[in-house]
Design a protein that fits this description.
Strand content: 15-25%
Protein name: Alcohol dehydrogenase catalytic domain-containing protein
Number of domains: 2
Distance between the termini: 35 Å
Family: Belongs to the zinc-containing alcohol dehydrogenase family.
Keywords: Metal-binding, Oxidoreductase, Zinc
Number of strands: 15
Largest sheet: 7 strands, mixed
CATH architecture of the largest domain: Alpha-Beta Complex
Radius of gyration: 20 Å
CATH topology of the largest domain: Quinone Oxidoreductase, Chain A, domain 1
Shape: globular
Helix content: 25-40%
Order of helices and strands: EEEHEEHEHEHHEHEHEHEHEHEHEHHE
CATH class of the largest domain: Alpha Beta
CATH superfamily of the largest domain: Medium-chain alcohol dehydrogenases, catalytic domain
Cofactor: Zn(2+)
Number of helices: 13
InterPro entries: ADH-like_C (IPR013149), ADH-like_N (IPR013154), ADH_Zn_CS (IPR002328), ER (IPR020843), GroES-like_sf (IPR011032), NAD(P)-bd_dom_sf (IPR036291)
Amino acid sequence: MKALVFQGPGKTSWQTVPEPGVKDAADAVVRVDTTTICGTDLHIIKGDVPEVAPGTVLGHEAVGEIVETGSEVRTVRPGDRVLVSCISACGRCRFCRENRYGQCRGGGGWVLGHLIDGTQAEFVRVPFADFSVHPLPNSVDSAAAVLLADILPTGYEVGVLNGRVGPGDTVVVVGAGPIGLAAIAAAQLYTPGKIIAVDLAEPRLAAARAIGADATVGADERPEELIKDLTEGLGADVVIEAVGVPEAFELCTRVVRPGGRVANVGVHGKPAALHLEELWIKDVTITTGLVDTYSTPLLLRMMAAGRLPSAQLVTHRFEIPQMEEAYDVFSRAAETGALKVVLGGPPHDVVALPA
């Protein structure tokens, strides 16, 4: 089969690799019909995630069909259409029993495209299938469903819930890429007073406004001043970091109000300064986290009911063999206007946000 293989920092190749099979009794093998590229994949290619070994198939998001299952799999069977979650869960360890699947110590957590071969391929082996795939209703479009593998639960859990967004809050989202837009969409479920998006790229700020941001500002246009003006000088109640670079995190800590919350979502490959000499007195809460995906069934029901923007976040569609072209478009998002790039799946009209 063909797959996108990490060859070391700055190097990938679309090449032939052996098809996966069932290794453990809890495994399922999924034929990948639809997959996508995540900002985390770009961090891996840059060398920001050194745990990823050369030779690993990248990708941790997919929709596909079960083609084989191990003897212990009970909830799905060959022929089922499923969502492959970015997080695998053993279901037995302490953290899985607490719904903290991202911290699984039984062989799960974020393993696909990280510690084992991932989903940017024609087939993928999914460990702990009973806890790691979700059957999909036919009413949910594949391009929309694949967003539930990572960005929508990440924006919801690590951004909105960790940040404890509440009614009337001023929420600042730093970074209006796919994760930031997912956080903006999810924040609206909690009726904040206003949402302010910060980004360097005007097309992404336009997308943020289309998704529901009340105000936008360029990261190079003194966002601190606008946020101060819109909050009577206090700062934001909740600030969500959705970039993964030191400058973005440090901006978040400058614009949060006393007693406010900073929810870091971005994947950081370099140290960021934590100015405790300024923050110690402000009673600020800072959270970090890897998505657990415990909210995926809830979000799937909301998507099926039309309560979440989904395929609207998809700006580009490719066939799976066009993986390298898709990576090129996604990696140049400031030029191409790419938000979420989806590969494969049956043909559908894509409702693109303003570019």
